[in-house]
């Protein structure tokens, strides 16, 4: 088995949980992706989200004013803190992570790629590791950046279970929406705490972004996530190693809707729907689509894409024959295992 593969060449074999999945990469889509700039941290931070009153507010997080999920007693015992942190949470040492064993690949900023490809960077070179999930045998939608006030509209129209990669800050900000997603039978997954570009961070800060995301999901949904998607697709073998220490697997994509460009009018709904129809027409009709549920405009587009694709879709664990969560706790049991 090859330790990693580059997503630019015809027929590949993706492996997750010991399951070998032959796939045909949509090379046309990758060419289009090369022609469009990827979502950047600057673009994400410039987006506006609608609060519960329908007003617009800049993306950010004030835990004192915005966190609705109570800070659990067990998390105070673990961290010594009494409230949710801001976008850049503190690192809390964990005894199951050997800091000395983390690969020594250097950090790199968004858009500044290392000259050597041995770190298997997805954001730079579309490199995938042996346990990355990056496609699906059935054409399937996935959603990043929620939960948000726009998410319930998406839930009302989705014809099938899907996978939602949630931000910890939004989980504690909109816990009721998080529980609504769960109640509809969708799979909840991690998208970090504050949507930071992980390859640019120190090992400690990467761990902090992941651990606080996991704690938010545990406090709200009583479960430990199995599936993790790095913001901006920012991952390499240093980031992957840390993700694996939490028992999670990285999930990427091979089809990008570029729906975030709707906000800046760089892309139109018509273009997104045209791509969706092309993906449906392709044989085999397979792939993981990257979409977002953080804004009403991207949600509206996702609803139409769902109509185009139809209900014959899979969740990420169904794509690879995996489990939904590492562990699910009874609602009366709030103690974290670490």
From TrEMBL:
Signal peptide residues are none
The Gene Ontology terms for molecular function here are: chitin deacetylase activity; metal ion binding
Record-linked PROSITE patterns: NODB
Q: Which residues form the NodB homology domain?
A: 137-326
The EC category is hydrolase
Coiled-coil segments? none
Record carries keyword Metal-binding: yes
Q: Which reaction does it catalyse?
A: [(1->4)-N-acetyl-beta-D-glucosaminyl](n) + n H2O = chitosan + n acetate
A Gene Ontology cellular-component term: prospore membrane
Instruction: Output the InterPro entries linked to this UniProt entry.
Output: Glyco_hydro/deAcase_b/a-brl, NODB_dom, Polysacc_deacetylase_ArnD
Listed GO biological process terms: ascospore wall assembly; carbohydrate metabolic process; chitin catabolic process
Which cofactor(s) are needed, names only? Co(2+)
Q: What is its EC number?
A: 3.5.1.41
Query: What's in the keyword line of the UniProt record?
Result: Carbohydrate metabolism, Chitin degradation, Cobalt, Hydrolase, Metal-binding, Polysaccharide degradation
- Which Pfam families does the record associate with it? Polysacc_deac_1
Protein name per its UniProtKB record: chitin deacetylase
